[in-house]
Amino acid sequence: MPITHGFAQANGIRMHYAEAGTGPLVLLLHGFPELWHAWRHQLAPLAAAGCRAVAPDLRGYGQTECPEPLEAYDIFQLAGDLVGLVHALCESRAIVVGHDWGAWIAAHLALLRPDIFRGLVLLSVPYVPRRTVNQTQWEQQTFPGQVFYQAGLRSPMADQYLKHDVRASLLRGLYSLSAEAGPEERFRPARAPGPPSGAPPARGPSWIAEGDIDYLAGEFQRTGFTGGLNCYRNMDRNWALTPFLDGARIHQPSLFVAGEQDPVLEFLQPEFAALQQNMPNLTKKVLLPATGHWTQQERPGEVNRLLLEFLAGL
Asked: Where would I find the AB hydrolase-1 domain in this sequence (predicted)?
C-alpha cells in the first residue's frame, strides 16, 4: 500500500502528514525527537486492514510549521492542530494512537474532544492525570537534590547542545532508551547536579536502518529541536491552564502498550499501576518483553498485531 504525503491548514499553521489507505481515520502521533517517520512500519498494515492511516509531523517538527512564541506550544494549541487536521481531512471522527509526547497529546485529545476521538491507543507513556503540583514541583519532590532530564530539555542551552551534533544526539537517544542499551549505557531520568558526565557512545540500535537515521538527522539539522523542546517548556503552563481536568478519567475504549525495559515506566510507575482506574474502558495493558521506549519501532510486528486487534474490536 503506497504512502503519500500532503499538507493541510489546521489551527492557523501548515501541517505535513503521511497517509496510506482509505476507511476509518487512524491518527498516529509521534514523540520527541521523532517525526511522522516513527510510524513507517504501521502505515501500510493499517491501510491493508481497511483504515485511513495518517501520521503528521507535529507542530514544530519536520515539514510542519514552527511558530516562534513559546506559548504556541501549550496543550490547547497542540490539541487544536489535531482537531483542525481531522476537519481538514474531511473527517469527523478518528481513533488516535500516540507514542511518547504523542501519547500525552492523544490522552488530552480524548479528554477534550471525546465527540471526535472515539478510541485511544497509548504507547510507552501512560495517561498521567493532572497532579496536585506542577511539573517542576513534582520533579523536585520525586528526585530531591537531583536534576530530572526534562529540566535539562527546558533549559535555553538545550537547542544548541542537541544541534551541535544532530546525528550523535539522535543516536544516543535511540540507543540509550532502547532494550539494547547495557546497564552503563542505559538512560537515567535523573542525575546529580553539575555538568553531566561523559556522553554515552553514539551508536545506532539494530532496529533502525542507516537510511532512516539519515532522514531524521537531515530533518532535525534543517529545523533544529526548538519546536519539540518548547513542549517541555510549557509543562508548568499546561498545569496552570487545566485545573478543570482535576480527577478527569478517559472513558473511550483504549489500549496501552509499552516495553518491559522502558526507562520511562520507572518514574511513571504510579500512573501505570492506576491505568485501569483512570481509564475504565481500557481493553488491554501490554508489556512487551525485550523492548525499550521506541515501542512501535523496536517491535513493529507485535504492535501492529495489537493495534489491529484493538481496531477490530471497535
From this structure: 24-299
